[in-house]
Amino acid sequence: MGLIVGVDEAGRGCIIGPMVIGLAAIEQSGEHSLRKIGVRDSKKLSPQKRQELFPQVRKLCKTTHIEISAQELTLLMDKYSLNEIEAIKIAEEINAADYPKGTLIYIDSPDNIPTNFTKRIEKYLKSHHKIISQNKADDLHLIVGAASIVAKVTRDGRIEEIKKEIGFDFNSGYTSDPQTMEFVRRHLADAKLGKYLRHKWRTIGNLMQKRLADFEEKERGEK
Prior knowledge:
Distance between the termini: 76 Å
Strand order of the largest sheet: 3-2-1-4-5
Strand content: 15-25%
CATH topology of the largest domain: Nucleotidyltransferase, domain 5
Number of helices: 10
């Protein structure tokens, strides 16, 4: 049997806040216990159910997470693609966890060609492990579903902290969320928000250009 590990992320496509990568490890013989408590892909669970399962997952599994702030993502994206950043961070956490050699690690791949993502990770590993990257791995493996709950609940908690700090409810923080995007458009110049924005996102660049064009048009109108 042996140890199996699941890896998944939350917040990859956000314009506000961190990306969080969750990891969960369990003996393969105990994976059935995750099914018994109702673990599945976090996107298919209600926020209340995720909150309910989170402490149970932490009790059954050895869990950890990586939080990559918007500021760090902005800096790293000067040099790396988002896929490469995610691969580096996953490898760093696997190295730090010191899993037994040959541990089976299932990863929800952000790459449409999952084997390419496996190769990215393997470049940075210090020990040999069996890495299996798959699209929709959080649907295919309970242990990845557990990791997705860790990532999602952790990120959601951080988003709520950011809302309290800046004093506004911007909803989910995703670019696909109209409430989030309206908030960003209105508060783009707000310093309190700035450190939580992912400035390398094309969406931000487009908003900045539009803001500059609107300012220049206003200046011409006042002359």
